[in-house]
């Protein structure tokens, strides 16, 4: 390995200051995206989702319960863990934005997962959700990949299992994704009410949008 | 932790067989996406990119040099390393699809990066590219986050530095992203020719699309 690397000759004209890129990026999002229908406390979250996917047309697909920002932010400040359905999503959660050194956990690679998935006739992503067990209570959940994980989570909750503080439900794809997000938006807890939630309706979603939402829920500041 | 977890009551009607979800997903992509203008050897790559972002409208934005599939696949089979600009992208590369236990490396968190970025007046993502040094020669590069990393990489190559076997250049965002991808598509090496490349033009892109492209370039099979 080169002990003393040197930079190449600058040949292109581009902004190379990280903070300036952030400022201009979020400025562009605000300029190009119509956030007028987005509740005030959700705007920073929607801005970061747009920033993560590079497409202002995603805005109308974002939907959320009215209490999700307050609930998720309070939970994270109180030290809640973040559970994710994929390692990729977990690695997109920015540690320095977490207000209480919150743990970010993914159980997909737990050694018990393959056998449980087989035994339960479900996906590994869904089986992994059941390994969150009682730690799920009061946690923030982010799902960016597997619709089956979101369905399974809702089933755990409807069964009277532990209740997360908030659900970021943004699985991507063509099979079950849109349906799982409708199920999230329409779920009713035993006894009434909902777990606070945010989603991106339709086929789109993914780890980048879901981690962007978690990062924005964790810290209001854009620049971090 | 619960030593003997049990599954919740199934309340929703959804496909819960992983292999079946894959099959149906790729079937939906082929059904809904117009791949008629996509070269035959690139179709599996474009299919996986659509699958990763959940949006068939991305297809016309994908562009590539005619030799990128052959070049990247040959390099990976020969044991080439994969360099990425973000940890998130690295964690999206599926180890079991890599044909030669290929290393997947990201130098963004190298301890030297912050000082080099400051000294060179550039971003940490760009400075991290220079730490790939001679290992870049013959490697496959995937950029899904930082336009500055892609510009910097092109500048390294134009300076007569080490040449990667192929570049997956899909940074996302509103500042420099589209321009960096045009620079990739139009670059000319000293002495002529290009590094084989693939991109998604415009603001869209990201770790999910870039890792999907690497996974498809690594293994032709859809189901893995």
Automatic annotation (TrEMBL), chains A, B:
One of its GO terms (biological process) is cobalamin biosynthetic process. It holds the Pfam family CbiC. This is Precorrin-8X/cobalt-precorrin-8 methylmutase. It comes from the Bacteria. SUPFAM superfamilies: Precorrin-8X methylmutase CbiC/CobH (SSF63965). InterPro entries: Cbl_synth_CobH/CbiC, CobH/CbiC_sf. It is an enzyme of class 5 (isomerase). Residues 20-219 form the Cobalamin biosynthesis precorrin-8X methylmutase CobH/CbiC domain. GO terms for molecular function: cobalt-precorrin-8 methylmutase activity; precorrin-8X methylmutase activity. Its EC number is 5.4.99.60, 5.4.99.61. Keywords: Cobalamin biosynthesis, Isomerase. It comes from Allobranchiibius huperziae. Coiled coil: none annotated. Pathway: Cofactor biosynthesis; adenosylcobalamin biosynthesis. The keyword Isomerase applies. Belongs to the CobH/CbiC family. Gene3D superfamilies: Cobalamin biosynthesis CobH/CbiC, precorrin-8X methylmutase. The keyword Ribosomal protein does not apply.
């Amino acid at each position: 390995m080169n002990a003393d690397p040197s930079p190449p000759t600058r040949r292109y004209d581009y902004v190379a200051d990280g903070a300036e890129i952030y400022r201009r990026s979020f400025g562009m999002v605000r300029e190009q995206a119509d956030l007028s229908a987005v509740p005030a406390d959700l705007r920073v979250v929607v801005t970061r989702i747009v920033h993560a996917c590079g497409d202002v047309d995603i805005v109308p697909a974002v939907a959320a319960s009215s209490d999700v920002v307050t609930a998720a932010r309070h939970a994270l400040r109180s030290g809640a863990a973040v559970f994710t359905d994929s390692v990729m999503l977990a690695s997109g959660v920015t540690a320095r934005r977490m207000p209480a050194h919150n743990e970010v956990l993914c159980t997909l690679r737990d050694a018990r997962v393959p056998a449980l998935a087989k035994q339960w006739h479900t996906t590994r992503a869904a089986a992994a959700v059941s390994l969150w067990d009682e730690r799920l209570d009061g946690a923030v959940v982010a799902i960016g990949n597997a619709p089956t994980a979101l369905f399974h989570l809702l089933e755990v909750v409807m069964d009277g299992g532990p209740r997360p503080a908030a659900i970021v439900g943004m699985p991507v794809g063509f099979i079950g994704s849109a349906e799982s997000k409708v199920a999230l938006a329409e779920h009713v807890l035993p006894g009434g009410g909902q777990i606070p939630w945010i989603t991106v309706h339709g086929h789109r979603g993914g780890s980048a949008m879901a981690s962007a939402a978690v990062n924005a829920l964790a810290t209001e500041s854009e620049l971090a």
